[in-house]
């Protein structure tokens, strides 16, 4: 993987441009309001169907978290994007939404006075230690250059015994499968004349999540693999390898 990382401002600008072209971002306010249950662009319906299921799992998990202190359960939506999840959680929880993109495709789209908006980097959270009962990292941790550092920051802002929910980040069997996938990711971004974005994109392995020993992870939903890979594996009497899963993991802070 390329060790030369682009400046964060350059990353945000090109990431925004690519996401708009892919249909994973929109300047239409209706787009964020309808997510995850409807993709008004109509371009990524299957992906949002899975994310909607994961949102319901996340919501159920948060209902089990007990608040420490007055005011209710404190939740950080890490890498919140346009803030659709934070907005949906706001009626029941004390929610803060953090993202590096503060523009109209990011936190600028979140117009809800119940949600605290924070522009910041997931590897250097501008937040006090022990500020939250739960942190949600949905489609987020695979953008960490230093995964261990990002996990340490999640642990720092969580109270002891708090919950980290990881969802919709590609999880690979091993480093070799992840490296192969990174080459495909690099080629994909190169097609948008933004190959440098791949330097901030990396799939995860379960071993890497467990290695720092900061969280006790439990797989709540194993996620999906492509149907072609699944069929091939069944015919071969095994399970697909090299294909990422998009699981939901609950990790309790040790």
Name some characteristics of this structure.
254 residues; alpha/beta; 7-stranded mixed β-sheet; globular; two-stranded parallel ribbon; Rossmann fold; single chain; 34% helix
Give an overview of the whole structure.
This protein is of the alpha/beta class and 254 residues long. It has a single domain (8-253), classed as 3-Layer(aba) Sandwich (Rossmann fold). It is built from 8 helices and 9 strands. It has helices at residues 8-22, 29-34, 45-62, 84-89, 147-157, 175-190, 206-210, 227-236, and strands spanning 74-78, 94-99, 115-119, 132-138, 158-167, 171-172, 204-205, 215-221, 248-253. The strands form 2 sheets. The chain has a 7-stranded mixed sheet. The chain has a two-stranded parallel ribbon with strand order 6-7. Strand 4 (132-138), helix 5 (147-157) and strand 5 (158-167) form a beta-alpha-beta unit. Residues 1-5 and 226-234 have low confidence and may be disordered.
Q: Quote the CATH topology.
A: Rossmann fold
* Fourth-level CATH superfamily: Vaccinia Virus protein VP39
User: Whole-number radius of gyration?
Assistant: 18 Å
Spell out the helices and strands N to C: HHHEHEEEHEEHEHEHE
Q: What is the CATH architecture assignment?
A: 3-Layer(aba) Sandwich
Which bin fits the share of residues in helices? Answer: 25-40%
Total individual domains: 1
CATH C-level: Alpha Beta
Please indicate the percent range of residues in DSSP E strands (runs of 2 or more): 15-25%
* Sheet with most strands: strand arrangement: 3-2-1-4-5-9-8
Question: Helical region count?
Answer: 8
- How many strands appear in the DSSP assignment? 9
Mean pLDDT value: 90
Write down the overall geometry. Answer: globular
Derived structural class: alpha/beta
Terminal-residue CA separation? 31 Å
């Amino acid at each position: 993987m390329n060790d030369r990382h682009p400046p964060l401002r350059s990353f945000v600008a090109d990431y925004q441009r690519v996401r708009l072209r892919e249909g994973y971002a929109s300047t239409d306010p209706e787009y964020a309001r309808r997510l995850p249950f409807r993709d008004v662009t109509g371009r990524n319906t299957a992906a949002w169907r899975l994310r909607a299921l994961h949102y319901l799992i996340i919501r159920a998990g948060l209902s089990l978290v007990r608040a420490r202190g007055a005011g209710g359960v404190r939740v950080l939506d890490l890498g919140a994007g346009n803030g659709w999840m934070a907005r949906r959680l706001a009626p029941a929880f004390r929610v803060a939404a953090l993202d590096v993109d503060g523009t109209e495709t990011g936190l600028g789209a979140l117009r809800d006075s119940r949600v605290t908006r924070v522009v910041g980097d997931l590897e250097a959270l501008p937040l006090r230690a022990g500020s939250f009962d739960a942190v949600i990292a949905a489609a987020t941790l695979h953008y960490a250059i230093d995964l261990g550092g990002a996990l340490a920051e999640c642990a720092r802002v969580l109270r002891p015994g708090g919950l980290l929910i990881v969802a919709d980040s590609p999880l690979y069997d091993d480093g070799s499968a992840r490296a192969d996938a990174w080459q495909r990711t690099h080629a994909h971004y190169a097609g948008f004349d933004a190959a440098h974005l791949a330097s901030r994109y990396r799939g995860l392995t379960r071993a890497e999540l467990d290695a720092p020993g900061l969280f006790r992870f439990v797989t709540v939903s194993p996620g999906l693999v492509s149907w072609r890979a699944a069929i091939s594996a069944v015919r071969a009497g095994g399970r697909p390898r090299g294909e990422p899963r998009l699981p939901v993991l609950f990790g309790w802070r040790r």
